[in-house]
Write a structure and sequence with these properties.
By secondary structure, this protein is an alpha/beta fold. It has two domains: 175 residues, 3-Layer(aba) Sandwich (Rossmann fold); 129 residues, no CATH class. The chain has an eight-stranded mixed sheet. β5, α5 and β6 form a beta-alpha-beta unit. α8 crosses α13 and α9 runs antiparallel to α10. The longest helix is centred in the last third of the chain and has 19 residues. The radius of gyration is 22 Å and the shape is globular. The chain starts with 15 loop residues before the first strand and ends with a helix. The relative contact order is 0.10. InterPro entries: 6-PGluconate_DH-like_C_sf (IPR008927), KARI (IPR013023), KARI_C (IPR000506), KARI_N (IPR013116), KARI_prok (IPR014359), NAD(P)-bd_dom_sf (IPR036291). Pathway: Amino-acid biosynthesis; L-valine biosynthesis; L-valine from pyruvate: step 2/4; Amino-acid biosynthesis; L-isoleucine biosynthesis; L-isoleucine from 2-oxobutanoate: step 2/4. It comes from Sphingomonas hankyongi. Belongs to the ketol-acid reductoisomerase family. This is Ketol-acid reductoisomerase.
Length: 322
Amino acid sequence: MLRDADIDPSALTGKRVAIIGYGNQGRAQALNLKDSGIDVVVGLRGGSGSAFEAEAAGLSIALVEDAVASADVTMMLAPDEIHCALYRAIEPHLRTGAAVGFSHGLSVRFEFVKPRADLDLFLVAPKGPGTALRSLYQDGRGMIALWAVERDASGHAREIALAYGQAIGCGRAGLIPSSFAEEAEADLFNEQAVVWGAVPEILIAGFETLVAGGVRPEVAYLECVGELKLIAELIEARGIAGMREAISNTAELGAFLGGRRIVDSSVRTRMTEILTEVRAGRFAAQLREEEESGYRRLEQARADAQRSAVEATFRELRQVDD
């Protein structure tokens, strides 16, 4: 793990960085770069609704092609599934010998993009959402990130990657070496099989089981969903073993007896299946198909989630309007 003291920031001295995409990561990284004294421009499509927001934050903006043409480093922070078309549009404008960076290894690992041979390719992937990356930076702290170099055409890609990670604040917490393939595969696996996929489904299943058993929805929600923040904070502070030591004997014994009945060998087998499918490119293909369909499945899933009993209970408890 490398930290600020191990990194030479001069690799970005006098260089301009173009941030392509002003979403969750794009906004945070652009603002952190600006506050670190980096010359940064945000590349946006004509008529983008983000233009006013970016300018109001004190950032320079330009059309995507112009931003890329003016930059020594271009950071691809638009949604992964549009990288293919986006990269084709910007490649003619990339300077010879420029560096192209990513915060997710997916589009390189699964060949959504195939950058030309003279370009450096690097990865700096903060391990958390952009909102947290920004707030940590403003608090004088940082977020752990993975970094990698896929191609070192200039001989300086490593230095550029590390200087970039430092400039967005990740060197304060630590930069861990990885690869595009490892980061992409591990991240996609986690999204499907663990934190973003399995955990919410377990919360919903627990809520529905209690309600079906006669427990009032408010109580079921507080027990099965409301305590998630507590366990997350304990794990962050103490680790999993430390979390178990911090809870009551009743909770610890219940977790020991019940947890492995839920997460049994069949669950682990399905997790292995998901990892195999990710590595084979099945999810990458599904992602492109979803974008081409206009996000039909995602739009339906979002609508269904809003109509669910667990969301109705959340709104009631938190007094959130529909």
